[in-house]
Design goal:
Layout (H helix, E strand, L loop, with lengths): L4 H14 L1 H6 L16 H27 L9 H6 L1 H11 L6 H13 L14 H4 L2 H12 L8 H4 L2
Length: about 160
């Protein structure tokens, strides 16, 4: 699912700042024990320097897979999920050969929504990255994307 990396990093920053469990687990790298106590200005730099390269590499891998086996990879967009979650779930399940009707998808989402606090749901709001990162930091993220030509088609969805 394509979502702007700055928005994902903003959500992850919230989770790391609030949850000792999230810091202990990490997502894709060790998180310093003192992350929650970092000055607010330091957290975005840590996320860009340490976490963002993993996200970029992750999407580059999927872009390569989508290019080489387009029938095997179903690219979804976060903006579509926000607009119509049941339709996106239905599309994903159909692609996985687990077709379900829209009502079943909506019922599953209703259950998940009730339990969102236990599922690490953050705000799910588009554009949050621009509130967390300066223009210069966003440019650094954009530069990371530029190292992977396979991401050119998705750059608009991943940048901001």
């Amino acid at each position: 699912m394509l979502r702007p990396i700055p928005d994902m990093l903003a959500s992850y920053c919230d989770m790391l700042s609030a949850s000792p469990e999230a810091r202990a687990e990490g997502l894709n790298c060790p998180i310093p024990a003192g992350f929650a106590d970092y000055p607010q200005a330091r957290k975005p730099d840590f996320l860009i320097d340490v976490v963002a390269p993993w996200y970029v590499g992750y999407f580059a891998t999927w872009a390569d897979a989508a290019h080489h086996a387009p029938d095997d990879v179903r690219v979804l967009r976060y903006a579509q999920l926000l607009a119509d979650p049941a339709a996106v779930l239905q599309t994903a399940l159909r692609h996985a050969d687990l077709p379900r009707g829209r009502a079943a998808c909506q019922a599953a989402l209703d259950i998940a929504w009730r339990d969102r606090d236990t599922l690490r749901f953050n705000q799910g709001r588009a554009g949050r990255g621009t509130e967390y990162f300066s223009t210069a930091q966003l440019q650094r993220l954009e530069r990371l994307l530029s190292y992977h030509p396979s991401l050119e088609e998705w750059r608009g969805a991943l940048a901001f």
